[in-house]
User: Which sequence fits this backbone?
């Protein structure tokens, strides 16, 4: 079973590292297929802590070939800053391969991201401000700059000129900003070209050959199902395909080659930025959950919004992605609660919805219908089998499994790499 996709079930920050760690030594390739440096994951190896935003986590494992696929948007300054920081700490980054078709985030994308958000006022998305949305907009508008354009200066110049034509009108006349010159962008991009060149190739071909040879390829999704451009809480979403379908389009590997779809879900829910969040807590319980779970953004440091587990969302994600296995993370954070509330359905103006409502206004007005499960007070961080868990914790997990429509194969009981209970192997 060599093609394994890892996706977030909720609004991101579910702890995908748990799954990549578990696949660890058996992984030959790790592919990032969507998003850019809006992601953020902290990987702890021994005493060392690494914060990655753009690079796939596989870059830290000596035996793994890391790949940035065509579905990614790349900020070259961030790419090389991350590579340099890792090299300085003795990590070999020479195996990284980058798709010739991946799109580039430039200065005008970053600027537009920030000014657009400011102009949206109350309606703002709460983006990470990294230029992600504007770079994907250019891709869809067919005025994007791709990695391969960096190796032909005259093509690059034509494309940047074309892209800037409308943007400068917008920046100067609508947003009251200074115009951006083609020269400054081209000069900046070309300054990275020679360093980038040896990494660039047809990554789709590379990955298909790896699969042909029976190697294990892990497709690491950025963000999560509810932030997906098609299936998330639009418009409060990111601009890429964060669901399993994106693993195929964002890497050049056919959907039939994706053998297992692993969904990562936290034992409660968090979200960054604006948008609906039915189980959100605004009281002291929320403050407690945020502090207990260390729920502050890796990329932005923003305190995350927190709430209880939302079963219809997991069921929705299971359907949309075709999830075969769930990894339930951070179960230990709930230790000490007398009763654990779980959202089993929604109430929308007096009507019960058992599934995520398709209508945006309904989801905005949804309040959770909660069921309460008995909690536990024992420390579960050293549990390594399901039976090591207190009966009430087992019951909580089994109830979530029953409601989610797929099996919970792995349970995280602490931040360490080994703090997991494996009920079914992921590979
Ligand atoms: P953008 O991806 O910067 O355009 O932001 C769009 C929305 O996605 C905002 O609500 C962000 O907070 C959210 N977002 C983007 N990346 C992540 C992530 O890695 N974890 C959680 N939320 C994210």
Assistant:
């Amino acid at each position: 079973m060599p093609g394994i996709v890892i996706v977030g079930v909720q609004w991101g920050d579910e702890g995908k590292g748990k799954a990549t760690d578990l696949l660890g030594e058996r992984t030959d390739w790790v592919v990032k297929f969507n998003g850019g440096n809006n992601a953020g994951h902290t990987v702890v190896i021994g005493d060392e802590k690494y914060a990655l935003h753009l690079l796939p986590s596989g870059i830290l494992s000596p035996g793994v070939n890391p790949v940035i696929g065509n579905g990614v948007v790349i900020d070259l300054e961030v790419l090389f800053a991350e590579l340099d920081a890792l090299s300085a700490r003795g990590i070999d980054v020479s195996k990284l391969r980058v798709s010739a078709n991946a799109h580039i985030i430039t200065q005008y994308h970053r600027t537009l991201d920030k000014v657009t958000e400011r102009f949206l006022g109350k309606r703002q998305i709460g983006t990470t401000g990294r230029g992600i949305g504007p770079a994907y907009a250019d891709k869809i508008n067919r005025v994007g700059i791709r990695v391969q354009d960096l190796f032909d200066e005259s093509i690059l110049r034509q494309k940047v000129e074309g892209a800037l034509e409308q943007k400068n009108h917008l920046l100067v006349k609508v947003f009251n900003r200074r115009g951006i010159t083609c020269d400054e962008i081209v000069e900046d991009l070309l300054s990275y070209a020679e360093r980038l060149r040896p990494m660039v190739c047809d990554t789709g071909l590379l990955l298909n050959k790896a699969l042909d040879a029976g190697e294990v390829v892990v497709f690491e999704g950025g963000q999560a199902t509810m932030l997906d451009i098609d299936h998330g809480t639009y418009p409060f979403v990111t601009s890429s395909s964060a669901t399993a379908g994106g693993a195929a389009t964002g890497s050049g590997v056919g959907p039939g080659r994706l053998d297992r779809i692993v969904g990562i879900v936290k034992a409660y829910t968090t979200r960054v930025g604006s948008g609906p969040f039915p189980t959100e807590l605004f009281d002291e319980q929320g403050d407690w959950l945020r502090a207990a779970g260390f729920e502050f953004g890796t990329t932005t440091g923003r305190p995350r919004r927190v709430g209880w587990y939302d079963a219809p969302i997991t069921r929705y994600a299971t359907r949309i992605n075709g999830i075969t296995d769930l990894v339930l993370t951070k179960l230990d954070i709930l230790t000490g609660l007398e009763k654990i509330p779980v959202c089993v359905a929604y109430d929308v103006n007096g009507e019960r919805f058992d599934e995520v409502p398709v209508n945006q206004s309904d989801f905005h007005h949804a309040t959770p219908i909660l069921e309460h499960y008995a909690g536990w007070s024992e420390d579960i961080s050293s549990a390594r089998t399901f039976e090591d868990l207190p009966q009430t914790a087992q019951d909580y997990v089994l109830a979530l499994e029953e409601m989610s429509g797929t099996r919970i194969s792995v349970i995280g009981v602490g931040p360490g790499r080994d703090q997991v209970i494996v009920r079914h192997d992921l590979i």
